[in-house]
Specification:
With about 160 residues, the chain is an all-alpha fold. Helix content is about 75%, strand content about 0%.
Length: about 160
Amino acid sequence: MNLSGLGIFHTIIGITALVGAITGFIKYGKINLAQLSGKVYFYATAVTSLTALGISKNGGFNAGHVFSLFIIALISISYFLFTNKKEVGKARYFENFLLSFSFFLSLVPTVNETFTRVPIGHPLAKDIKDPIIGQTLLVIFLLFIVGSVFQFIKQKRENLEISK
């Protein structure tokens, strides 16, 4: 697999972020920054995105670095909305969407790196253009769309309950 020390650390923290997000989706239907799972996702994603800036399989600045910077922006905006716009119900829609979108975007390089490395010696995909990567990302994208609609409906109900 040829991972550097930074690469191993990045992978461990990245898996921690994924576990935090999935736990939040299962328990709360969203990445909830008020809960431990949401905090784990937020901080682990921040660290994972920052460490990704120091990793380059091909040398130099690449699309993975752009994803990392964009994910940092998404979670930062979400955190701002969470901490500064608590009384604004509409802010929750954006917060939920941005956190879910950051999760989706983090899965793009995750799927690519995993499928081109695992199993060791006979990876599932030869490179990023392999159809299995595209098909997997399409399924994940469709889940993201369905999940976003679910979150919107759930948040609308929560906002109506709060306004009563």
